[in-house]
Structure formats: structure tokens, C-alpha cells
Amino acid sequence: MMGKDNNAASPGEIFKLQFPVTVSLLLLIAILLLTAGFIWVPNWRSQIEFFGISAGVGAGILSAYYVGRGLQITIEQRDKALSDEKISRAFSIAARWNEPNLARTREQWRRLLDEIEGKDAAEVCDILNRDPHKKAVAADVLNFFEEVGYAARSGVIDMGTLKNVHRSLVIHYFSTILPWIEKIRRDKHQPTAYEHFEWLSDQWS
After folding, report:
1. Cβ of 125: how many Cβ atoms within 10 Å?
2. How many of the other CB atoms lie within 10 Å of CB of 148?
3. Tell me: the pLDDT tens digits for 171-200?
């Protein structure tokens, strides 16, 4: 059994005419009526003047409300767009790390991590000093996560999304390669080398 269609036209109905009644429309009608009364009913002019002043105040308040509401909507839309953009940037970083052209670098990096994990600082530095290729791989990965840390610290990407994607990697990678970072800072007199990578690891540790 078909349900009753509330929108079905009644017999003989040609069309429906509908229009919204807003506060602005009511205010316009009131102004027109007061104007007509002022012209055609002189005895009411003092009362009409009072109502006219009141209507003007009301119109000013209504206008201020609409302006404020418009600004609020604009701010909300801007904040939503900014939030979406930050989330998109966080995902784009994850996509960059997983790009096919970085597959070889990621594989070499994982092998290097397996080799140096659990070793003391001197052994880690010795492994990297003896092999320029391993040193280059470490530098590429450190530079990538330094860029990630800088973006996060600057507030241009969404930290929540980034944390869900990269938290375990950042903490593991930084703690494992820290002896080499400390050697770079010491030998090259650069105490702030990879500071953003370190900051990001500290945030999530």
C-alpha cells in the first residue's frame, strides 16, 4: 500500500505560492504602515515618531546581528578550510615517505637501523664513518624528518593526523640515530642540528 503523499496537489489546485516571512520583511511592512499613518492620521504623529525611532533602533540592532553572524560564519568556514588543509598536508607527508622512488632508501635505512640498534654511541658512529653510502642514507632520512618536525613545529600541518601516521617511526628512528646526531652537533659545532626532529620525538615520547 502506497503511503499518502503530503505534497500531492488537491483537486482543482493550480499552484502554490509560498514565500518566507523574515524579520526584515516584517520590519519593512511596519515602516510602510507607520509612514502611511504619519501622512494620513495626523493625530498619531507623536506616537508614530516614537515607534519610528524604536524601529530605527531595532533596525540597527538587527543589522549589527546580521553583520556579526556573517563574520562568525566566515570565521568558521575559514577555520574549517584551514583545518582540512593541515590534515591534507599531514597525509601528503606520509605519501611522500611511501613514494616508490624512496623504496630503495627506506630499505637501506631499515637495514642500517638493524645494524646499529642496540650498539653504543662509539659503535654507531664507527659504522657510519666507515661507509659513506650508509652515512648518505642516514643524512637523507634525517633531513626528511627534520623537515617534518619543522612543519609540525610551525603549525602548518595537523599534529593529530601526523601523530597517528608517524609517531612510532619518529620515536624509534630518533632514539636509534641519536648518537650520530650528537656527533654531528659536536664535531661541526652545530648544537641545533636536527633540533626539529628531536622536538617532534620529544612531543610524542
Report:
1. 18
2. 23
3. 999 999 999 999 899 988 999 999 999 999
**Residue 203 near residue 166 (C-beta atoms within 8 A):** no
- CA distances to 37, 179, 195 from 146, in Å: 75, 16, 7
Output the pLDDT for position 15. Answer: 52
CB atoms within 10 A of CB 16: 8
Question: CA nearest 202: which of 177, 165, 174?
Answer: 174
State pTM to two decimals: 0.61
Amino acid in the structure at residue 123: E
